[in-house]
Amino acid sequence: MRRFAISAAGLLALAAAPAVAAAGEPDAQLWTTAIANGPVAGDFAAWVEVQARIGDDVSQLRQSKLRVALGYRFSDALTVYGGYAFVTSHRSPAADATEHRLWQQASYPVGSLGPARVTGRTRLEQRSFEGSGDVGWRLRQQIRVGLPLTAGRGASLTGSVELLIALNDADWGGRQGLDQVRGFAGISVPLGPKQVIEAGYLQQRVQRSGLSEQVNHVGVITIAHRF
Predict the structure, then answer these.
(1) Strand 44-55 and strand 116-129: pairing?
(2) 108 forms bridges with which residues in the sheet?
(3) 77-122, pLDDT tens digit by residue?
(4) Nearest by Cα to 186 from 224, 222, 150, 152
(5) Which of 15, 75, 171, 173 is deepest in the core (most CB within 10 A)?
(6) How far is 112 from 175, CA to CA, in rounded Å?
């Protein structure tokens, strides 16, 4: 556990490092998300998510996403989901890019760092774009830390690191290897017995084949409802 704590702290520090060293042109963005998930019948669960990403210095809608899934709770520690995401990348004045994405996900506890709770999320995606024939496989691994600020169900500080790794090349532009690194820090506040709002800062580092790294500075607002 001590070894994990050192590794997690190192990853968080790396992802939160200033973007001065990056060679790309940074962009200011805002990502807004609404999620409803949880058990619906016995050990079966559902997931519904709507997301909008505003870029170009928070002036243009650049991506919209609808994600749905069904899941199964194997235990209090492990829930597995499988579903579909419809993603539209808005590229005005060019035509929009439409993506159909299948995805599978496992969420699980990892351990603790003192009073902080550490959880993991492993997601596998199969990405295809209209007008292209290839399917791009991508693995996403996230480690998340939550530190309660009060006793009971109150506000908490949150942080996460996520690595996105492309597993193959695809004719629509996907390239095998590290695709993105995302580091997040924020605060989570309950809105009610089953609702939480989380807000914070995310740094997104996008690897671009043959080009300099793209660094985006993202304000994140997420509202989550638990069934």
Answers:
(1) unpaired
(2) 120
(3) 999 999 999 999 998 888 999 999 999 999 999 999 999 999 999 9
(4) 222
(5) 15
(6) 35
